[in-house]
Amino acid sequence: MLLYIIVLIVSREIRLKKRPMGIPTNDNFELVEVQVPDSNDGEFLVRNIWMSVDPYMRGRMTERKSYVPPFELGKPLDGACIGKVVESKNNQFAVGDYVLGMNGWREYWISDGSSNSGATKIDSNLGPIQFFLGIFGMPGLTAYIGLLKIGQLKEGETVFVSAASGAVGSVVCQIAKAKGCYVIGSAGSKEKVSWLNDARIDYAFNYKEFKDDISTELGKAYQSDGIDLYFDNVGGKHFETALDHMKTFGRIILCGMISQYNATSPTPGPTNIFLAITKRLKLQGFIVRDHYDMLNQFHADMTKWVNEGKIKWKETVFEGLENAPKAFITLFNGENFGKTLVKIGPD
Q1: What is the rounded CA–CA span in Å between residue 344 and residue 322?
Q2: Under 8 Å CB-to-CB from 227, ≥6 apart: which residues?
Q3: Which residues are CB-neighbours of 242 under 8 A, at least 6 positions away?
Q4: Is the pLDDT of residue 188 over 90?
Q5: What is the CATH number of domain 10-110+128-133+314-343?
Q6: Domain 138-291+299-305 has CATH 3.40.50.2300
Q7: In what helix (H) or strand (E) does residue 292 lie, and over which residues does it extend?
Q8: Position 199 pLDDT exceeds 90
C-alpha cells in the first residue's frame, strides 16, 4: 500500500485594501494567506528573501493614467524582490539559484523564466544579494542614467542633490564625486548629514534647520557662480530654490518629486519658473526602464567604484513581510535612510 503525502505551500501576501488619500496608513493594506499552486513543466517556485519599497509605488496606488498601470484593489502589490529557487521544472533555473523579480510583497511566486514572468539570475559573488535592490539595482541605475546620460555630467561641475541620503540621491552624490565634481547634498536630519560627510560629500546640510531660507544656506555651499546640475528628487521648495542658484545653461534632472506624491489637492508650481527661460536652462525628466540597454555598462562601472571604495551604502531593514506597509510609509515621513528594504525570509 502506497501512501502519498501532499505538501501544500501557503504564502502570505500584501494586498491594496483601499486607495490612500494623502500619506498611506496601515489601513490601506491587508495581509492575506493564499495557497501556492503546483508549478507546471518549465516553471519554478521562488521563495522571497528580500523586497524593495520605492516611492514610485505611491503613484500606482492612485487610479490615474501613468507610465505603469495602477495597483488593483484586492490584488497583491508588486515590486522588486530577490528570492531563491526552491523547486524547479525548468532546466535553466536550478534549486538554490538566486533570482531578481518584480513579485515583491509576497512570500512565494512561480515563474517560467521569461521576461513576462520577471525572473533574472543574479551573481551573489558581487556582494550581498540585496545590493541588486540598491546600488546594483534600480536605485543605482536611476542615479547612473540620470546623472551621466540625461545630465551629461562633466568633470569639475557643481552638482546639487536633494534627498541626498536616499536610495537614489546617495548614489548620485557619490558618482558625481567619483567623476571629479563638487557636490552639495540636502538631507533631513543631522544623522543623514553626518553620513553624507563620511561619504566625502563636499557640503551637506539639514534643510529642516533652514526651512524658511534654504536659499541662503545653498548660497553658502558653493564658491563658483552657481550650480551646473541639479538632481531633483523632491520638487517643491527645493526645486524653486535650485532655480535661483542655477548657472546660465544649467541642467535640471527631474527624477522624482516626493514632496508632492501624497498631495490631496493640486500643488502650486515654482513662482520663479521664468528663470528656466532667462537662464536658458534644460529641464528633463526620465524613466529608468527606458534605459535598460545600459545595464551592462552600469554594472561594470558600479563594480569598479565599489571595489575602489568610492561608493558607500546605507540600508534601513524591516524584518518580516507583515512590516512591509510600515517600511513603505517611512519613505514619506522622513524616517527612511538610504535604501529601505524588507527581509522576508532567511537566505
Answers
A1: 9
A2: 158, 159, 160, 184, 242, 245, 246, 247, 250
A3: 160, 162, 218, 227, 230, 232, 252
A4: yes
A5: 3.90.180.10
A6: no
A7: none
A8: yes
